[in-house]
Amino acid sequence: MINALRGMKDILPPQNEKFEYFIKNASKIAKNYGFEYVETPILEETNLFKRSVGESSDIVGKEMYEFVDKGGNSVCLRPEGTAGVVRSFIQNKYDRAGGVKRFFYHGPMFRYERPQKGRLREFHQFGVECFGESSPYEDVNIILMLKDILDFFGIKYTLKINTLGCEKCLPPFRENLVDFLTDIEEGLCDDCKRRIKTNPIRVFDCKNENCQKLLQNAPRLGSELCDECKESFEFVKSKLDNLGVEYEVDSNLVRGLDYYTKTAFEFVSKDIGAQNAVAGGGRYDRLVEFLGGRATPGIGFAIGIERLLDLIEIEDDKKEGYYLGAMDENALDLVFEIANKKRKKEKVAVSYGTKSLKAHLKTADKNGMRYCAVIGENELKEGKIWVKDLVEKKENLIDIDKFKE
Ligand code: HAM
Q1: Whole-angstrom Cα distance, residue 148 to residue 274?
Q2: Are residues 303 and 343 in the same domain?
Q3: Which of 18, 302, 357, 405 could hold 125 in an S-S bridge, CB 3.0 to 4.6 Å?
Q4: Distance, CA 108 to ligand 1 centroid (Å)?
């Protein structure tokens, strides 16, 4: 027997319906916020992720599905969606056109992580990216949109925000931090020792208790901001306050990707286990330029769809369509004909085996159909079909000709 690869899952009933329900409604909300659907390739040049997500990140350093294709190119299954959308934005010259462009997308992402509950090697994200808007109003907007999506599905969360500074204030802060880390290097874990040279702010993300203890007196992100970053972060916080959106400022929130600047955020849930981030995002004002485009600010987020599926409830009134079945061999042809006519307008499920009425009703219910319509020997003689509304629990004998219409 051949099984799916470790950390990769089929999306089967009943999760499949929740999956579609999520995409449909999250897309609707994104469109209400002025975002347009975009589809980018799953396979990209490896360098795209090295240069955006960053070589020092775990994603690029340890988790990429990277290989050489038949043409000798180093390619990679995308570990996240932002880099591809930025590449497309530049390649299609939207950076040259100027103005604001907003995209949303959904699809599979691949990270060679150690699988556990909520952590897969193939998982699906719903993401958005906004280009060309540097106003912190957009930061608030993006957070509100994400909140609207999670609220729509009744998901409970805590919003954590932080600011990572910009190209003016981050380098001096980083230098101070490196000085501090060099003094305590002895006691740090191997990963953090490495981070001092590659990306020191990632030490705040370290799960090692000893490292966290040693970092208690470290200079804090957000404590040495330039005026512009300070103003922008204060603006975001005060707008969220005015709107009654609850949040926590978490100065340890650094995100696992290197492209962020200024506002960064995560929505975490306590109902899904250790992998508790349902969504994350932030600003990446340097990324377009860094990937060779004309300098354009950007901000976005991505939701991990699998992490939400267990939290989404679909109400029972979603039952719809007709289940058609025969209780007599001679009625099969008629059932086949009616089904083909009816499904031009409605959802129809058919069974081509003859079975008892009880068995037909059970199958109709199991398939989430609203009506169970059956033809037996008597109905066939009288030119009628027996129909039961499985929600209202009412039954009727209807003329077949009328029913077909
Ligand atoms: P990220 O935080 O790496 O950000 O991923 C976003 C979400 O994807 C996470 O919060 C989590 O729900 C889900 N996720 C990540 N890894 C896994 C996994 N191995 N298994 C299941 N779910 C997972 C990004 O990917 C950025 N591109 C977000 C962004 C867009 N920032 C700006 N624009």
Answers
A1: 24
A2: no
A3: 302
A4: 11
